[in-house]
Specification:
By secondary structure, the protein is of the alpha/beta class. Helix content is 28%, strand content 21%. The longest helix has 20 residues, at 75-94.
């Protein structure tokens, strides 16, 4: 009998899982809360990856992830990431996904429709590939309950939120790929539909969640009401000043005192430290300003700076410093899984931001 797989979520993780299952001969149904191609955090991402590739060995990558994560990560899962990340991205490339893999870095920005949607080209390509592989995609459908009996998964319930009609279907396996819960925060760079659905369903199904206190806040995000509620890459401070209300480059001073050389390095290795430092500064009544008035026209063509700013900045928008502040970015905790994506409930798998580890 042909296996039936239901995937809840249409970001990079859910789409990749759906395609892989279809390529193995399964009948696959994928639920997308909104548009399959553009409604996920993957679409609204920078479209960049850090990985073990080129001169960066899996062992070096493993040690750095454990170090930067302050040994809070699950060593088995981190080891799996480090040893298989390059091969996984090359599989996507073999599938026809537009991707460039370099020394310890990879990106999909060549297919991006805009700076602020750096991953939308990839999700569009994955969505098209999923349909070509026979995956049935239901848009505007939100998963609501995991069905189980006899100690294993039996299917899934969902609702078409536009019509209010409820549905259910049996499944050989269910894959949770519902993302995080950024919408509970007033300042988040996540789409508003990131409401923690997968966490709620897992709890209702009797599973525990792990490390939910670990929520990543990106250090810089636009706070000025004239700008989108969106992150600003720390690399920007390598080109234009980030200051307090008195004009002091206090964040740069802190980063250098920690033994780091630049905002770009801090972006990879000290996001949590920078975010905590700036949050304390604000709690004490301080302000944080990004001096975009110092941007010259030719600077806007610099790749690192364009990726960091992610918004159009014509001269009329660059007349004064703008206020920035930490912004919620990613849920690190979630549903515990093993290195194969299995949860404690047989037949239930999870991938992407909804997972812990």
């Amino acid at each position: 009998m042909r296996k039936r797989i239901i995937v809840a979520g249409s970001g990079g993780a859910g789409l990749t899982a759906a395609i892989a299952a279809a390529k193995k001969g399964a009948e696959v149904l994928l639920l997308s809360k909104t548009s399959c191609a553009t409604g996920s955090c993957t679409a609204y991402s920078g479209g960049m990856f850090s990985l073990a590739s080129g001169s960066v060995t899996p062992e070096e990558h493993f040690k750095k992830v454990i170090e930067v994560g302050r040994s809070a990560g699950d060593p088995e899962l981190v080891r799996t990431l480090s040893e298989h990340c390059e091969a996984s991205l090359r599989t996507l490339s073999d599938w026809g996904i537009t991707m460039k893999i370099g020394e310890g870095r990879a990106h999909v920005r060549a297919s991006a429709p805009s700076e602020i949607m750096g991953g939308a080209g990839m999700t569009g390509e994955l969505c098209a590939l999923a349909r070509a592989e026979g995956v049935k995609i239901l848009e505007n459908c939100a998963a609501t309950r995991i069905l189980s009996a006899g100690g294993r998964v039996e299917g899934l319930e969902w609702v078409d939120w536009k019509t209010g009609r409820e549905w259910r279907s049996w499944a050989s396996a269910v894959i949770l790929a519902t993302g995080g819960g950024g919408a509970i925060y007033s300042r988040t760079d996540n789409p508003y539909r990131m409401t923690g659905d997968g966490y709620a369903m897992a709890l209702e199904a009797g599973l525990d969640l792990a490390d939910m206190e670990y929520v990543q806040f990106y250090p810089l995000g636009w706070k000025d009401p004239a700008f989108p509620v969106w992150m600003v890459g720390l690399t920007a401070m390598d080109y234009i000043p980030v200051t307090d209300g008195k004009g002091r480059e206090f964040l740069k001073e802190a980063i250098l005192s920690w033994g780091l050389s630049s905002g770009k390095e801090a972006n990879y290795f000290a996001r949590d430290r920078c975010a905590s430092f700036l949050a304390r500064h604000e709690k004490d009544g301080g302000k944080i300003y990004l001096h975009i008035e110092k941007l010259a026209d030719d600077m806007l063509s610099l790749p690192d700076l364009r990726v960091s700013l992610m918004v159009d900045l014509p001269p009329r928008r660059r007349v004064r410093p703008v206020e920035v502040s930490p912004i919620q970015h990613y849920f690190t905790g979630g549903v515990p899984i093993d290195s194969e994506g299995r949860t404690r409930l047989p037949g239930l798998y999870a991938c992407g931001e909804v997972t812990a580890g």
